[in-house]
Amino acid sequence: MSRCLVFLSVFLLSMSSGLVPAAASEWRILAQFDDAPEGLVADGKGGFYVSLFHSGHVMQVAKDGTVRKVADLRTVIGSAKGSTVGIDWDGADKLYVAFSEYSKRFPWPAKAKLSVEACGDATVTRSGLYAVSLSTGTVEPVVTRADGYPFCFPDDPVIASDGSIYLSDLSLQAIWKIDPKEKSAVLWSKDPLFSPGDKSLSGYPVGVNGIALAGDESALFGVTGGIPMLVKVPINADGSAGKAEMLTFGYDNMDGLEVDAEGNFYLTETLRSEIWKVSPDARKREQLGNPLQAPLGAPASLAFGAEDICVTNLNFFKHLPEEKANSIACRKLGAPLW
Predict the structure, then answer these.
(1) What is the bridge-based pairing of β-strands 82-89 and 67-72?
(2) For residues 319 and 296, is the Cβ–Cβ distance under 8 A?
(3) How many CB atoms lie within 10 A of CB 293?
(4) According to DSSP H, which parts of the chain are helical?
(5) Is-above-0.85 flag for pTM?
(6) Is-contact 40 30, C-beta < 8 A?
(7) Gap between the Cα atoms of 23 and 165, Å rounded
(8) Quick one: pLDDT at residue 9?
(9) How far is the C-alpha of 211 from the C-alpha of 253, rounded, in Å?
C-alpha cells in the first residue's frame, strides 16, 4: 500500500472515531484575570461566575468578556493560604464555593501527593464550603473543618433540586453531602473505585474531582485523577449512594465534568490539556480541543454558555504563554459526530 493510501486510511479512521481535534479558529479567549481561574458556572445571562485559585476572589464575566468582582473569600478566611476551587449557583442569590487550606506542616502543592498528611493537621480550619450572597457580596461559611468535619481537599460542589449540595473531596477520595440550611454534612460516598491505592496511573494519588448530576438526579457522575476514569454513583431512593461503576477510561489526570441535556459528558484533562465530549453510553468520544490547536492550559472547570462551552485555564503546568494564561477559553458547539 502506498504512503498516500496509508495516510488516507489513518485519517478516515481518526475521523470515524471522533479523535480529530478542533481547529484553533473554533476557540477564543473570553476573558483574562490577574489570577488563575478555577471554578466556573453559567450566570443565566449568557455570562459566568468564576473563582480565582489563589486570591479567593469571585468574579462575574459578562457574555462580552467584561469582568467584575462580586465577592472576596478573604473577608472570612483572612490570610489563610489555599486553593479557591469549584463553584456552583443556586439560580437565585447564592453561590457556593469550595476552599482548601494548605498546611504549614505539610505544604501543598509542592508535593505530588497533594499532602494527604495535611488532612490530619488540626491547625487547618478553613477548608470547606462557603456561601456568597450575590445581592450583598457577603461571604459566610457553610461547613468547614472548624465545625469538626475532616475535609481534606474540598473541590467541586453541585447543587441538587432539593437544595442539598454534593461536594467532591479530591484528597480524601470521597464525596460529601451537605445541608446548607442546617449547615451539616455527611460523608456520602467513599467508594473504593475513587482510590488509586498505590497504583496511580497519572502520578497523582487522588480521587474524585469534578462531579455532575444526571438530569433526573438518579445518579451522580464524577471524574477521577489517580486512575483516570468517568464513574457513575447511583442515588438510591432513600438518598444514599449506591455502588460506583466505571463508565469509561483511557484518559490522563481528569478535572472538570459537565453533562448536557442529551446526557453527553464533557471532560477536561489537566496534564495533557485536552477537552473531550463523550456519548451518553460512554462508547464514543470526540476531542474538542488540545493545546496544539487551542488556547488550553490545564483546563479545569467547564460550563455551557448560550451557544458554546467554556473552560477555565488553570495553567497549572505552564502550557500557556503569559498573554493567554489566566483565562477562560470558549468554542461553539457544533453538530455532534453521533
Answers:
(1) unpaired
(2) yes
(3) 16
(4) 3-17, 74-77
(5) yes
(6) no
(7) 37
(8) 42
(9) 14
Measured CA distances, 244 to 163, 229, 233, 235, 326 (Å): 23, 12, 4, 10, 34
Q: Is the pLDDT of residue 115 over 70?
A: no
The reported pLDDT for the residue numbered 11 is 38
Q: How far is CA 204 from CA 190, 268, 302, in A?
A: 18, 16, 21
Res 15: pLDDT:
40
* Residues 6+ positions from 320 with CB-CB distance below 8 Å: 291, 295, 296, 297, 313, 327
User: How deeply is 214 buried, as exposed, middle or buried, from its count of CB atoms within 10 A (0-12, 13-18, 19+)?
Assistant: middle
> Comparing C-alpha atoms, which of 244, 265, 267, 246 is closest to residue 255?
267
pLDDT confidence of residue 108: 56
Three-class secondary structure assignment of 179-192: ECCCCEEEEEECCH
The number of residues making up the chain comes to 338
CATH of 28-332, one of 3.40.640.10, 3.40.50.10490, 2.40.50.730, 2.120.10.30: 2.120.10.30
Q: List the single range of 43-57, 247-261, 323-337 with lowest mean pLDDT.
A: 323-337
Tell which residue, 236, 125, 114, has the closest CA to residue 170: 114
Rounded distance between C-alpha atoms, residue 185 and residue 142, angstroms: 9
Average pLDDT on 113-135 reads 86
